[in-house]
Amino acid sequence: MLTRLAGFIYPHRRAVLYVTVIGAVIAGVFGSSVANHLSPYGATDPATQSVQATNRFQNATNREIDPGVVALVTVGNVHTATAQARVNQITDQLRHGPDVATAVSYYQTHDPAMVSRAGSQTYVVAYFRPKSDTQLKNDAQQIENGFAGQHEVKLGGELVAAAQVNTQVSHDLERAELLAFPLVFLLSLLFFRSLVAALLPPLLGGLAIVATFFALRIITGFVDLSVFALNLTTGLGLGLAIDYSLFMVSRYREESVKSGFGAEALKRTLQTSGRTIVFSSLTVAAAIASLTIFPQRFLYSMGIAGALVALIAATLAIVVLPAILAVLGPRINALSPRWLARAADRDARPANAGAWYRLSQTVMRRPALI
Asked: With contact defined as beta carbons under 8 Å apart, do 234 and 308 qualify?
């Protein structure tokens, strides 16, 4: 199969890259909003008695059992008509929010627990209709935006916290990517001794992440997923991209010394390193996919995301990366500083000398002792 794949990729290498670019643009556009469709919840088992009791309550009352949004209002003195009018205004604003079932304040319940000891603050609670976690999170975000600029009102509650968790996760992922991609490039430069070759691992990792986000975005239309799947996608996508790129580029360099930068080198690379990547990705995907047997959303979400990114990274490594190598040819070693170029020449020779070769021979000669 891999031999036939190599026979297809080499004459169609530019077409493969054109399709990849178009696919990456489409995946980037539609997959960029995946975080908005993920939920920060998912640690409970739907089969437990507590969850079933909560569901029965919600079905009977058509509202959530806990308040989703809590508005803390500073009014000066809650016992004044001005304060009551302002709190009633805030209560009405919450009550007319998306998917809000009801909103109550101290002036409806007369519960002293809803007023601070000094009498200067009170809070309003909003209960939501039973909806998906993702929908309720987006509702809370819309309500929070509606209170922007009202400095005497501070919003909290379960749904507001959920929206903020999603925002924080997205922000943390951006920071992690800004740090990880340059680091991956520098490590690749030290290993490959070529600026061109060093660009391949972060490129492959970026494509794997974008494609997996796109796949997750499609899946969210059918299954609720946890936002923590994004963290696993980024970390595992970069890790596998580095691993698979090392296999492919190093082998391609070795084969190019024997047969030149052509179809034969590409075929041998896929027959050897490509085979390793296929079995490696299947092993990783199967191991992580075992998490899907758990009912907790955050666990099965990571199982889905992990299996997807492993298979996607492998597909890119045996289809897109060979096409790039075929187009680059000898330019894979281009833009090498002189001191790195000498090391690159050594790396391109058959692995029958050097420290690593001697170490492997020592281990093979004395396996029992080792």
From this structure: no
Tell me, yes or no, whether 222 and 310 share the same domain.
Answer: yes
Contacts of 331 (CB under 8 A, 6+ apart): 196
Token digits for 12? 């169609």
User: Hey, how many other C-beta atoms are within 10 angstroms of the C-beta on 208?
Assistant: 30
Give first-to-last CA distance, the chain, whole Å: 37
CATH number of domain containing 127 = 3.30.70
Tokens of 267: 């075929």
pLDDT of residue 36: 82
Which CATH number characterizes residue 280's domain?
A: 1.20.1640.10
In a domain, 339, yes or no: yes
Taking CB atoms within 8 Å and a gap of at least 24, the contacts of 260-269 are: 261/329, 261/330, 261/332, 262/10, 262/329, 263/6, 263/7, 263/10, 263/326, 266/6, 266/9, 266/10, 266/322, 266/325, 266/326, 267/3, 267/6, 267/7, 267/10, 269/6, 269/322, 269/325
CA distance 202 to 188: 9
Same domain? 91 vs 194: no
- What share of the chain has pLDDT > 70, as a percent? 95
Same domain, 210 and 99: no
* CB of 42 closer than 8 Å to CB of 230: no
- pLDDT of 316-368, one tens digit each? 999 999 999 999 988 888 776 666 655 555 555 555 666 777 888 888 888 88
How far apart (Å, rounded) are the C-alpha atoms in residues 115 and 212?
48
pTM of the model: 0.79
Question: Domain end: 111, 136, 156, which one?
Answer: 156
Determine the structural domain holding residue 326 and report its residue range.
2-42+164-365
Residue 46 confidence (pLDDT) = 80
C-beta of residue 150 within 8 angstroms of C-beta of residue 175: no
Contact 141, 162 (CB under 8 A): no
